[in-house]
Amino acid sequence: MQDTSIDPRVNLPVRQKTSLLESEGRLRHVILASQFDRERIDDLCKVAEQVREIAEAPKGREELAKLLPHLNVLLYFTQPSTRTFLSFSAAARLLGMGVEHARDAEMSSEAKGESDFDSVRMFASYFDAIVMRSPKADLAERCAYMMNDLADAKQNQRSVPIINAGSGKDQHPTQSLLDILTIKRTFSRSRYEELHAQDPKHAFGVSQLDVGNKRYAFCGDVGRGRTIRSLAELLSNYENVSMCFIAPDHPKLQLSDDMRNLLLKRGVEVEEYGSLDVKAGKKWLLSTVDCLYMTRVQSEHDDNDLKTFLKTADTSGCHLTVARVHRMKPYAPILHPFPRDSRVMEIPTEIDNDPRAMYFRQARNGLWARAGLLAHIFGKDKKLADVHADFFRERHDYNR
Ligand code: NCD
Asked: Using a 6 Å cutoff on CB, does residue 173 contact ligand 1?
């Protein structure tokens, strides 16, 4: 198959692409953040919560492992990864799936000149889904269209779902899903009640339960952080959301034009700053935000121009300090997709014990979000809801 037959689809407007990535009303491939509209996000987060609640008990884990024991997933990661790789692996195992990985293109037939497409098509012979991370921005997307072509009636070949676990500087849809799950859990009714009981003036407002009606701040490598791009896009589905972007003073690190236009078109109020230590009107910027999303500078993408800039630039305005955290609202979560860069410490470890530091919980939410997503793709969400209902009914009976 010629790659050129795929080009027109890669160049389609996003809205048209999303239907190519679905099948019978559910996600078949997960490639773009745009596939997650409000309804789908809420639905996938509900499934993730069910997984989490069931998994709390050993008996629940036994039930989860009965969901997809007949399926095997390949984790094809040709870019460094710890959390995404391990959480996908743990999520697939939680549902009973077999898991294998291919991480090093140098150790595979790609070293003998095999194309990415041949490799992925071969993998589909042995596995039922391919989760892939690649430095190439649109490789996962192209592979998804190749799988669609293989499935069509004329070819009737083996074809499996493709899940994008991070593509170039562009997209990281499953990270944004777990980020939203973390935001939802942080702004849940139970947390509201807990904070309210402690000190009502420190709780967030009732209108802020869930994701909408908030001011989000993103700090660090705004231009090249695929997690920021994907999360900002998801958040723009919610009502009355404003966003501040804080990045060092270099165009490649600052909000890109395409992202700014997308957000403005969706009615998001956008503000841009060069440091966390600035005032927004009369107040410190950090005292005005409801949620802060930190990222590291993605130095693996540095070109010479950026290397020179970063050698001399003072980027400390984009790092958190204890004093800066003190300015934040008492309930405002601090998120970070991790890894943090231990050479610069954009979040110093002293902040880890602050109740607002959510990044370790955020990583754990990746397990639930990814297990929920796999259950959805393979049509097991209804079964999962039944297991959840039964399980809680049973537990309730035991407790009587
Ligand atoms: C992120 C990534 O790979 O884009 N990490 C992750 O998946 N949790 C962010 C990063 O590497 O900085």
From this structure: no
